[in-house]
UniProtKB/TrEMBL annotation:
CDD domains: A_NRPS_Cytc1-like. One of its GO terms (biological process) is lipid biosynthetic process. SUPFAM superfamilies: Acetyl-CoA synthetase-like, ACP-like, CoA-dependent acyltransferases. It comes from Microcystis aeruginosa Ma_MB_S_20031200_S102. The lineage of its organism: Bacteria, Bacillati, Cyanobacteriota, Cyanophyceae, Oscillatoriophycideae. InterPro entries: AA_adenyl_dom (IPR010071), AB_hydrolase_fold (IPR029058), ACP-like_sf (IPR036736), AMP-bd_C (IPR025110), AMP-bd_C_sf (IPR045851), AMP-binding (IPR020459), AMP-binding_CS (IPR020845), AMP-dep_synth/lig_dom (IPR000873). Keywords: Phosphopantetheine, Phosphoprotein. Residues 658-733 form the Carrier domain. This is Amino acid adenylation domain-containing protein. Belongs to the ATP-dependent AMP-binding enzyme family.
């Protein structure tokens, strides 16, 4: 009590606390126990007693005040709660009261229990969270593998078109015959993206111990050293075509591996996720009642086969007799070309990351200005569609958090019924999708990222650090259980044990018998996602972000620790940290902060080239900031909030060369605006200055507006320096070309 007379304002000033009129500067939650007896008020000929008066103004966001009351029969506690009605609802305060009473009862019943293990939830709440909101009873063809279900579909629709690519197509029977000529042993597949750096491909080849590598001759020549036998699907096909077209004898069971997909790893090396046939088969059975996929559906294979969204796209079409349109790579990079393809192929099922879909919204907006509403087809009438009309039935989001307000222009044009927009949260370790949430225009009134409820055969628990259930409205880490939980990580037993834990709620529950698990005695597992969420009052989940250094940008899952580990391995870098920042347009980008070795110097171009040899393009930071030291908090941790934003004067090429003609002069201005870089020279590389595929589409649009030329996106990838791009634009102007990308022509149907 020595300093109790120090004025409040002096305390605040001494602590240098950031002030705000919206909350108390020292603390926002208060608990007070009044255990000093109040003297009775004595007035002549009057009897006085204390009356509770409700305060109209509060000092703190939340207060609980208790008072010890002495009576002839004994002592008891009496108290009241005060709360900010703008922050808390009466229902939530009522739950808090129940939780506090449950906590007190737990302390009395077991005073030796650690605080973290004391009960908080009432029994009705536990029943709600464990059972009512996790109804996971569903059936699926658990004795079938993926290829067997595909063979059944081939019998039903042998002559229907299964796959389309450019001007080529295969029927279900033709696709099955080719697959039978190639695949006989029931092995799992490991997708390798040829765009990955050699070092990353080399690690994946070695880690997976691949025995056979399917590729094309031009790609196989650029692969690192490996032990796998190479089969080139282009040059070796004539020999393979001599094999039998009949369905081979089945050698696998649903519990065998279907594929291994590598995701970013915090140690600097990617980790392979082991996914069984049964994991994928149950995914479609569990969601069938929602989507009613059928043979009239047309799907687009938009995502890389190294990204698990592709599993949903491929099998969603092929298990239901639909048509799968394989999107050429450069078309996936051009929203205009992709929109054109969606219209011409009459795609009905579209799967997109929210970032990619925002690009399509912008394309449609520009088309709306070019084609007045009266010249277009009537919404909902497929027979009256034009070349600029979509035929979508479903748009399914995944891969990253959805900002619902970005859909407002779409809802204004299309409404919320046709197509139906659906938000799905998912992770590779639990087989693509975990939750389901149909979207409507009423969602625009909320700023929350609502991801809905678990898929029927999955369970989602929100737990604290002690693996205790958190109450409704309280953030907790998501743990996922059920038939979608995969085996774990390839060659990473310690990490598998850490992330795939035994369920604390189902210790006596066992997984039903399977073909490989005859006794059915395998304990139930939960996957620790690292994602934060909270339950809303009606049982839906609101996504709140990550609790670690993993992020998702443009649908790519990125461990910031992997980038940091590689940067730290550079001999001229002392320490580093990588974070995600929003740029002025609201797009997310990676920013690396680097402290070099004191006696050495290093350029940003050197750092970028170092990472380029080891990481895929989507993991290379868009901006680098060189610091003398990293800012620290009071307890010695890196203060990420104090890291300065990158300056617009990003280091460019080693030798600056100014623009030499009007086209280069305009391009310098456009690059500076799109990349947020102050000084751009003609020898600078678009991608080395932080450009990526989405920014490339913005650049093409700016060039169209200012230079009146339609630049093929391919040309930007092939001519990445400003000087090369200017030369290409000059040639296009001379040719008076007005082509964005090669026109996608209608294909003759069989």
């Amino acid at each position: 009590y020595a300093n109790q007379d120090v004025p409040f304002e002096q305390v605040v000033d001494g602590l240098e606390i950031e002030r705000s009129l919206s909350y108390n500067p020292l603390f926002q939650v208060m608990f007070a126990l009044q255990n000093a007896p109040l003297n009775a008020l004595e007035l002549p000929n009057l009897k006085a007693q204390y009356l509770a008066v409700e305060n109209q103004r509060i000092k703190f966001d939340l207060s609980l005040v208790l008072e010890e009351i002495e009576t002839e029969k004994g002592a008891y506690l009496e108290g009241f709660w005060e709360y900010d009605s703008d922050l808390f609802t009466p229902e939530r305060i009522t739950r808090m009261v129940d939780h506090f009473q449950t906590l007190l009862k737990g302390i009395v019943a077991n005073p030796q229990q650690t605080v973290g293990e004391l009960p908080l939830l009432t029994e009705p709440e536990k029943q709600q969270l464990l059972v009512e909101w996790n109804q996971t009873q569903t059936s699926y063809p658990d004795h079938y593998c993926l290829h067997q279900l595909f063979e059944e579909q081939v019998k039903r629709t042998p002559d229907a078109v299964a796959v389309v690519y450019s001007d080529q197509q295969l029927t279900y029977n033709e696709l099955n015959c080719r697959a039978n000529q190639l695949a006989h042993y029931g092995g799992a597949y490991v997708p390798l993206d040829p765009e990955y750096p050699i070092e990353r491909l080399s690690f994946m080849l070695e880690d997976a111990q691949l025995s056979v590598l399917l590729t094309q001759q031009k790609l196989g020549e650029n692969l690192p050293q490996h032990q796998a036998s190479i089969i080139c699907l282009d040059t070796d096909w004539e020999k393979m075509a001599e094999n039998s077209q009949s369905n081979p004898e089945n050698r696998v069971t649903p519990d065998n591996l279907a594929y291994v997909i590598y995701t970013s790893g915090s140690t600097g090396k990617p980790k392979g996720v082991l996914v069984n046939h049964s994991n994928v088969v149950r995914l479609f059975a569990a969601t069938d009642a929602w989507y009613n996929f059928n043979s009239q559906d047309v799907w687009s294979l938009f995502h890389s086969y190294a990204f698990d969204f592709s599993v949903w796209e491929m099998w969603g079409a092929l298990l239901y007799g639909g048509r799968l349109v394989v999107v050429p790579y450069l078309v996936t990079r051009s929203p205009e070309a992709f929109y054109q393809l969606l219209c011409q192929e009459k795609v009905t099922i579209l799967n997109q990351t929210p970032t990619a879909f925002r690009q399509l919204i912008q394309v449609e907006e520009s088309l709306k200005e070019s084609f007045p509403p009266l010249s277009r087809g009537v919404r909902g009438d497929r027979s009256s569609t034009t070349d600029n009309d979509l035929s979508l039935r479903l748009v399914i989001f995944g891969g990253e958090a959805l900002e619902i307000n970005s859909l407002q222009p779409w809802f204004q044009r299309h409404g919320d019924q046709c197509p139906q927009l659906v938000n799905m949260y998912g992770i590779t370790e639990t087989t693509v999708h975990v939750t389901y949430r149909p979207l409507s225009m009423t969602d625009l009134d909320s700023t929350a990222s609502v991801i809905g409820r678990p898929i029927p055969d999955l369970k989602v628990y929100l737990l604290d650090q002690h693996l205790q259930l958190v109450p409704v409205g309280v953030p907790g880490e998501m743990y996922v259980g059920g038939a979608g939980v995969t085996k774990g990580y390839l060659n990473r037993p310690e990490l598998t044990t850490e992330r795939f834990i035994s369920s604390p709620f189902e210790k006596d529950e066992v997984i039903p018998p399977t073909p490989l698990n005859k006794g059915g005695n395998e304990p139930s597992k939960l996957y620790k996602t690292g994602d934060l969420a909270r339950y809303l009052p009606k049982g839906e989940l609101e996504y709140l972000g990550r609790i670690d250094n993993q992020v998702k940008i443009r649908g790519f899952r990125i461990e910031l620790g992997e980038i940091e580990a590689l940067l730290a391995s550079h001999p001229q870098i002392w320490e580093t940290v990588v974070i995600v920042r929003d740029d002025t347009t609201g797009d997310k980008r990676l920013v690396a902060y680097i402290v070099p070795q004191s006696e050495k110097t290093i350029t940003i171009n050197e750092i970028r080239q170092f990472l380029k040899a080891k990481l895929p393009g989507y993991m290379i930071p868009n901006a680098f900031v060189i610091l003398d030291t990293l800012p620290l908090t009071a307890n010695g941790k890196i203060d990420r909030r104090a890291l300065p934003p990158p300056e617009s004067s990003i280091e460019t090429s080693d030798k600056y060369v100014a623009p030499r003609n009007p086209i280069e002069d305009i391009l310098v201005t456009v690059w500076s605006e799109v990349l947020k870089v102050e000084k751009v020279g003609i020898n600078d590389n678009f991608f080395e200055l932080g450009g990526h595929s989405l920014l490339a589409t913005k650049l093409v649009a700016q060039i169209r507006d200012r230079l009146k030329v339609e630049l093929p996106l391919r040309q930007l990838f092939n001519s990445a320096t400003l000087a090369e791009l200017a030369q290409g634009i000059e040639q296009l102007k001379q040719q008076k070309s007005d082509t964005i990308v090669p026109t996608i022509l209608p294909r003759k149907r069989k």
